[in-house]
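thought: user wants a sequence for this fold. calling inverse folding tool.
action: design(structure=
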């Protein structure tokens, strides 16, 4: 593939923003779509490709799984980092909706490196334990 698939951190699967979807559900839906559209992906094991190029996890801003009162973490922001050179950060849902949402597309490798170092890398270090690699 010419461009690596964007990395995505999912909203907390048990908070109201997830609508009940788990990281495994997301991987399963992507695999089903890729299987139904073989012209979009190189031939081979779809699940292995997804595990290599796409990481779905629940957002964890710390090593905890919830706030001290037991409330699950929730996050409405969306972040996609592409090839460590560009990114989208905003609130726009990635499906059709009639909401007014805003976001930024930044096509600047230096800014992407700064975002990764200051925000994404620390967040990923506490979230990666929740990665799902198969449906």
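)
observation: tool returned 135 residues.
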């Amino acid at each position: 593939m010419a461009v690596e698939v964007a990395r995505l951190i999912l909203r907390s699967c048990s908070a109201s923003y997830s609508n009940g979807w788990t990281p495994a559900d997301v991987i399963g839906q992507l695999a089903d779509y890729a299987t139904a559209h073989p012209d979009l992906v190189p031939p081979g094991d779809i699940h292995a490709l997804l595990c290599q190029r796409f990481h779905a996890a629940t957002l964890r801003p710390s090593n905890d799984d919830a706030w001290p009162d037991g409330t699950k973490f929730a996050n409405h922001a969306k972040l996609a980092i592409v090839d460590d050179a560009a990114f989208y950060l905003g609130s726009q849902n990635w499906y059709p909706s009639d909401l007014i949402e805003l976001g930024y597309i930044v096509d600047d490798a230096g800014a992407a490196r700064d975002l990764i170092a200051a925000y994404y890398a620390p967040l990923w270090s506490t979230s990666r334990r929740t990665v799902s690699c198969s449906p």
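thought: summarizing for user.
answer: Here is the designed sequence. Confidence is low (pLDDT under 50) at residues 1-15.
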